[in-house]
Specification:
With 397 residues, the protein is an alpha/beta fold. Helices cover 46% and strands 15% of the residues. It binds nicotinamide-adenine-dinucleotide and magnesium ion.
Amino acid sequence: MQRVVVLGSTGSIGVSTLDVIARHPERMSVYALSAHSRMEQLAEQAAASRAAVVVVPDDAARGRFLAAWRGAGRPPEIRVGAQALADTAADAGCDTVMAAIVGAAGLPSALAAARAGKRVLLANKEALVAAGPLFMQAVRESGAELLPIDSEHNAIFQCLPHGARASAPTEPAAGVRRLLLTASGGPFRRADPADLEAVTPEQACAHPNWSMGRKISVDSATMLNKGLEVIEAHWLFAMPPDRIEVVVHPQSVIHSMVEYEDGSVLAQLGQPDMRTPIAYALGFPDRIASGVPGALDLARLGRLDFEAPDFERFPCLRLSFDALRAGQAASVALNAANEVAVQAFLEGRLPYTWIARVIAAALEWQAGRSSVTLGSLGDVLALDAEVRAYAGNLAVA
Ligand code: NAD
Ligand code: MG
């Protein structure tokens, strides 16, 4: 019996994860859930899944959770605060942790799960972008099992040679030439750049293929999401940046590919539903039902299209490759500045086109400072906070 902690259970990935878990009562159960807001939804989830523990951000949220509790029996144990989140991820009561909090806020708990040697299902790509070296070192040292949830990385993981599916490789898998990350191109793939200035959060969040949380939806529109995924692939698969290629594929049917030395290219295909990668990781190495309805109907699709990414139209993609090549501090800056800018955009305080400008300015600012060591979680969080303060000043403009 696999006992699962779902961090960020009220989010898009969290809800899909609970859906898959509920389909397999004979092999997995929920140990703990966490959420930052939406205590009513958390209370419903906790009652339905019979979670033993929930983690909430503060005492006010604890009160709202209890007020919303309609479960049959006693409410679960309620733990409060960020430290409780990390402690629960490392709790002896669980074997598997779904890290599905959005943003660098999910880093400490994801890292705690890795350090505790859990099976870590990693949706939270920002954790790897901000702290790739620390995170992968923790996986290596603890013997944790790391399974990528991001659909592209999950696809690559599926296409790698079986023996090369180590949790934290130190070099690229033998025989692999390149990783080909597919990208839908988002809602503005063909938009006139002149029209982007006036883009609203609703337009940016209207992804053509995937239904996701608002932050990652905006990231998909700017293609910063693909940039974060390039950095994520670099750490997960020990792949140098120049062997990671982005290819735009508007239908999102091929989730990514692995190109081998012999010229073979292996792809993973499927419907755009995150329950497939989630079920793959929860069941690994077995294949289990995901609840994704129907089958991929290729004849009905008729065609799959591909094109090269446009680095002019999507400056955030170029900035991400720049940051990856510049080093770890630049990756921290890229991610933190983006989180601040996207938040400001979603709150109507920043025009869409300024997201890339804020990131570019933060990267320049970071490059002009004396080098920092990022040897610990504290170092990473300190730099993250500094960049947020700097970017926050720009984002009120
Ligand atoms: P979401 O916004 O729908 O949900 C985020 C969850 O995190 C919620 O449960 C929320 O309560 C919690 N949360 C937010 N801020 C928090 C904080 N400061 N502290 C603790 N908890 C907090 O996001 P999502 O779309 O489910 O994405 C989650 C993660 O998975 C992101 O890192 C995203 O990049 C990644 N991801 C998502 C998808 C997708 O299809 N949605 C695909 C690939 C990767
Ligand atoms: Mg993805």
